[in-house]
Every structure is written in structure tokens, then in C-alpha cells.
Amino acid sequence: MTDHGPQPVERELPTEEARDLISLVREVIEREIRPHAADEEAAGRFPRELFTLLSRSGLLGLVYPEEYGGGEQPYEVYLQVLEELAAARLTVGLGVSVHTLACHALAHYGTKEQIAEHLPAMLGGGLLGAYCLSEPSSGSDAAGLTTRATREGDTWTLDGTKAWITHGGIADFYTVMARSGSDRTRGITAYLVPGDAPGLSAATPERKMGMKGSPTAQIHLEGVRVPDARRVGEEGQGFAIALSALDAGRLGIAACAIGVAQAALDEALAYATQRRQFGRPVADFQGLRFMLADMATRIEAGRALYLAAARLRDAGRPFSKQAAMAKLFCTDTAMQVTTDAVQLLGGYGYTADFPVERYMREAKMLQIVEGTNQIQRVVIARHLAGPESR
Predict the structure, then answer these.
(1) Is the Cβ–Cβ distance between 187 and 181 less than 8 Å?
(2) What are the two backbone dihedrals, phi and then psi, of residue 204, each rounded to the nearest 5 degrees?
(3) Hey, what long-range contacts does 159-162 have (CB within 8 A, 24 or more apart)?
(4) Euclidean distance between the first and final Cα of the chain, in Å?
(5) What b/e string do you get for 274-287 counting C-beta neighbours within 10 Å, with b at 16 or more?
(6) Catalytic residue flag (residue 234)
(7) Are 233 and 170 in contact, with CB atoms under 8 Å apart?
(8) What is the DSSP secondary structure assignment for residue 235, as one 8-state letter?
(9) Sign of the CA dihedral with 213 first, then 214, 216, and 220 last
(10) Using CA atoms, how far apart are residues 79 and 75, in angstroms rounded to an integer?
(11) Residue from 30, 48, 7, 86 nearest 355 by CA
């Protein structure tokens, strides 16, 4: 690597502990993730044993309380860890983000007894979580879900189908939103469902253009019985819980997107400084230099945007608008940067011999998950101009 090739991201971190954490993450990446990323993605293999290692290393519960096995790190730090992981392999970065999302309901809305009973195993006990909100007929319209929860005494029975579930079929627990009442938004309740619950099954994973190592599947709930002790939050509070989780989850997607974009820039920069045409490095040609400059500028702007939103969250201030802005801008940035990286590598960029084609396929998915970028624009506009007239 030359002085003018790819360099590690210089991170602004609030504590020495956070700097040590990033160093640990980079060691895990170089030892356990990067050497296998390309082959495992091509083979569609999910690295389950790696997530067990991450759990035991304290990397699956970074934002949650130390007393329950979490790292008690601010989002400002956690998101930069996600970015590092996603740059090495998006299946891993996104997986950590989804697991954190799956723990959100219990950690923030569970009773003390529920938290003490379940959260330590979810954070550091090797378990893997999934988050179940979307359905085949209700994606962007989250309140339109039809999965039903019927109560008989102290037991709920869940029936319905959830769709586009990351870790579907391999998760140890599912945070499930189901309709428990007739009110569109106040008739939804959250439940913590074990992965081996009778009546819970997973369909064949979706065949996707990218993220082939991360299983995405429908989850079928047929007469799944859940004790009321596994209801999270108040009855009818599930939609509010889901929205609060999504605000935080969108920041995770934003950080993952910048990770993918950074990886694409690094690959493009390495190629441009080493590849020679007409007797000199292609990085000498102004057209390509300007492409690299634009890519780097978009990445820095995206990183600043998601970190600004994270600092609002860490300060206990409203951040929903900024989370939507970060998700929108960072994922659009990832799509633009990865596309430019493929273009910059020319024919090589279109082959699987270089990872930029994989990054481009992965970036497209990030514009869709956790609220499409069209929905992010709706959210932002509502913050600016108020709700739409009916």
C-alpha cells in the first residue's frame, strides 16, 4: 500500500475505551471476517459461528446496559463499529444491526423481570435475534399488518405470516408485532417468541441479487402460543415500540451503507493507483480523479450525517427526522459510490474477481430495507411541513 492508497478511516471517538473497541473490531475483522467474506457470500453461507464469537466478545449488545451483558456504548460509537463490520462484510454488519433491533423492544419496554430473565442471554449468550414487522401485504404500510394475536387467559395465540425477515429460520428469538385489537395503530402488540416455538416455521429463503450469505425468509405463525409473560410493553403499544426501534435501526442501516461505500472507494482507489494505462497510473487522469474526489466527499458527508443523528439520540433529544435523513442520504450514497467504483474498474469491475460488483448489489438492498428511501422522504417531509391533508 502506498501513501496515496487506501488508508484506515480516522475516527472521532469520545473515549480511550472506544478507541480500544475499534482496535478490537479491526483485529476480529482481519482474523475472522475479511479472509472468508468473498467465498462465503458467493456460496451463500451464513457465518453462524462468527456471531457466537461476536456475542461472547460483547459485540452484539454494545448499546445495552453493562449489568445485563451489554457494552453500554453510545450510538456514536456503536454505529462506527457497524460501519467497520459492514465494510468487511455486509452480512455481518447488517446482522449485528438487526440483532440490536430485535433486542430493542425488550431492553426499552420490558419489565425488570423480563429484562433480567431474557436480556443477558440475548446480548452475550450466543443467541441471534430477528425482527418481525413486515408482512407480504404490508411493507411500507407498517400499521396495515394482519398477523393476529388472540388472548385466552394468560396465553396469546399468534397466527399469520411475516415477510422479509433477516435471520428468518435461523434466529433463536423473534420480536413479533401482531394485531391484538381493531384500532389501526393502537391495536398492535409486541411479543418475544422463541425460535423453536411449536407452530413457528420458516419458508425457503428468498433468492436475492445480493446479501446471499444473509438468509431472508417468510416466517409462518400457526397457532403459536405465547405466554403473557412474553408480551413486551403494554397491550396495544406495539406500533409505538416498532417506530422507536425503526428510528434507531435506520441509523444502523446508514452506518452499514457508509461501510459498504467506504469499501468500494478503497477498492477503487487501490485499483486506480496501481493500474497503468498509456504509461501512467489511471489515477493521473482527471476524469477518474474527480470521480474519486466525489466518492470520498459523499462518504464523509454521510458519515457526518449519521454521527450527528447518533449524538442527538445519545443526548436524549428527538432524532427521528435526522435518522430518516441519514438513512436516505447514506444509502443513496452507497448506491452511487458502488456504481462509480464498478465504472472506474471498467471490465474488471463487472467481474466477480473484484468485490465492487458485490458491493453494488448489496447497496441496492440498503435503499429498500427498514423503510424504502421513498418512505424516508415522506417522514422527512412530515417533520418539515406537517402531515398530509386528508
Answers:
(1) yes
(2) -60, 135
(3) 159/221, 159/222, 159/223, 159/224, 160/135, 160/221, 161/135, 161/136, 161/218, 161/219, 161/220, 161/221, 162/132, 162/133, 162/134, 162/135, 162/218, 162/219, 162/221
(4) 59
(5) eeeeeeebbbeeee
(6) no
(7) no
(8) T
(9) positive
(10) 6
(11) 86
Q: Please determine, for residue 41, whether its predicted confidence score (pLDDT) is greater than 60.
A: yes
Cα–Cα nearest to 263, from 365, 368, 363, 367:
363
The torsion angles phi and psi of 306, rounded to 5 degrees, stand at -70, -30
Task: Give the start-end residues of each E strand in the chain.
Answer: 129-132, 148-152, 155-166, 173-179, 188-194, 200-202, 216-227, 231-232, 276-277, 280-281
Rounded Cα distance between 68 and 22, Å, is 22
Among candidates 292, 295, 307, 274, which has minimal Cα distance to 363?
295
Confidence (pLDDT) at 387: 87
pLDDT at site 363: 98
Instruction: Dig out the grid coordinates for 322 from the structure.
Output: 435526522
Pick the closest to residue 124 from 28, 73, 57 (CA basis): 57
3-state secondary structure 154-202: CEEEEEEEEEEEECCCCCCEEEEEEECCCCCCCCEEEEEEECCCCCEEE
Please state whether the predicted TM-score (pTM) of the whole model is above 0.70. yes
**Per-residue pLDDT tens digits for 115-168:** 999 999 999 999 999 999 999 988 778 888 999 999 999 999 999 999 999 999
Q: Which of 235, 300, 370, 388 is catalytic?
A: 370
Q: Which amino acid is at 142?
A: A
Per-residue pLDDT, averaged over 72-90, amounts to: 98
The single residue listed with the C-alpha cell 428468498 is 206
Q: Distance (Å, rounded) from C-alpha 356 to C-alpha 363?
A: 10
Q: Residue 107: which residues within 8 A CB-CB, separation 6 or more?
A: 64, 65, 68, 115, 119
d(CA 171, CA 25): 23
pLDDT of residue 28: 96
Predicted local distance difference test score (pLDDT) of residue 288: 80
